[in-house]
Write a structure and sequence with these properties.
- The protein has 363 residues and is mainly β.
- Helix content is 10%, strand content 42%.
- The protein has a 7-stranded antiparallel β-sheet.
Length: 363
């Protein structure tokens, strides 16, 4: 079954602009709708001592593919001669659709009754065939191959205006791929120089939490470090802070946070973050979910959490040291879990979050 549409946008052009007065048809009139949701288990092997295999994960058998059939609109032309596709028209179409060597977004327009259908797919045109009658080309079959078995929503955007006090906000991830993460694009616009953090508390593993009390101590951060030391001793672990100097302690976000490794008796190293809120002195020791870096007024940064890239507004790469990141081992790249994600932000900046959700709807 060929996918039905009113128009589509690909690589900066619309079909209606490249070849006007073309319409969508189905040359073969099949009833099946391709979902491409078959998958295989990734598994081990058996032997005489192990008769059941180990299952490691799954993988999709093949990405989604669909066919777009087009002809010239018979309501706009008077005879069969005008309905023919000339070689020049075919050349114009193939030049447009087959020049890209990387996946691109294709965006569909539908008639009103189908306007709620998924419109966004990512991939490329893998083949273009002719529909010939009596040696004359009256139609074209455009074969599109997606990068995944899914369609996607249009870009979703969320803006959070942070301050030096703490901001809590929420982001919904309603992707149909429920047990996978979405890695969004983050744009950070600093309003002043300083350190910030962006935490997805839904993605945190909270090890310990409570409320700090000075009790004669010099500062709340010194109390927090004592809490960390006590927790490590209780777990039978040694501590290695992420920094340089006598104690290797680097305090973050106006002396409200610190990162460190716990090393067990087997030498396994696990990275943690401890921080407290200046508003109520509540603290948490967490694993994951927490990213922090320096910002500079006038230097917007974009963080591509899917490709693990950081760059400025001129698309120039920004090195980690410019952001005060010297320890990238087990670095957390922000991600969205399925459902409601609770964000905690600290600093003086505006955050724009851009992402798409998967839709398992087939062609």
């Amino acid at each position: 079954m060929a996918k039905q549409f009113k128009d589509f946008f690909f690589c900066g052009e619309k079909l209606s602009g490249v070849l006007p007065n073309c319409i969508s048809v189905d040359f073969e009139a099949k009833d099946e709708i391709n979902l491409s949701l078959s998958r295989d288990m990734v598994k081990g092997e058996t032997n005489r001592y192990k008769i059941e295999v180990d299952y490691f994960y799954d993988e999709w058998s093949e990405p989604l593919t669909f066919e777009l059939d087009i002809i010239k609109d018979p309501c706009k032309y008077n005879n069969q001669l005008e309905m023919e596709f000339s070689k020049e028209e075919i050349r114009t179409l193939t030049k447009w659709l087959t020049s890209s060597h990387f996946p691109e977004w294709i965006i569909f327009d539908y008639d009103v009754e189908y306007d709620n259908d998924a419109k966004y797919y990512c991939g490329w045109f893998e083949n273009i065939e002719t529909f010939v009658v009596g040696g004359i080309v009256y139609g074209l079959k455009l074969h599109f191959k997606c990068t995944t078995p899914f369609a996607y929503t249009k870009e979703k955007k969320k803006t959070i205006n942070a301050t030096k006090n703490y901001v809590v906000d929420y982001i919904e991830n309603n992707s149909d791929d429920m047990e996978s993460y979405i890695y969004p694009l983050l744009n950070v616009h600093p309003n002043s120089d300083g350190q910030i953090f962006i935490a997805n508390t839904t993605d945190m593993n909270v090890i310990q939490q409570g409320t700090l009390s000075l009790n004669g101590a010099a500062s709340y951060i010194s109390v927090l470090i004592n809490v960390i030391e006590a927790y490590a001793k209780k777990q039978g672990c040694t501590i290695e802070y992420t920094g340089t100097g006598v104690q290797n302690i680097v305090l973050l976000c106006n002396d409200t946070a610190v990162q460190f490794y716990l090393i067990d008796i087997y030498g396994n190293r696990t990275k943690y973050t401890a921080f407290y809120k200046t508003t109520n002195k509540e603290y948490q020791i967490v694993q994951g979910g927490f990213m922090t870096f320096k910002t500079y007024k006038g230097l917007d940064i974009t963080i591509d959490t899917e490709r693990l890239l950081i760059y400025d507004s001129l698309n120039r790469m920004i090195t980690y040291d410019k952001l005060g990141i010297y320890d990238v081992d087990q670095m957390y790249w922000l991600r969205l879990l399925n459902g409601t994600n609770t964000f905690l932000l600290y600093g003086d900046f505006n955050l724009n979050i851009t992402y798409r959700e998967a839709r398992k709807v087939g062609e």
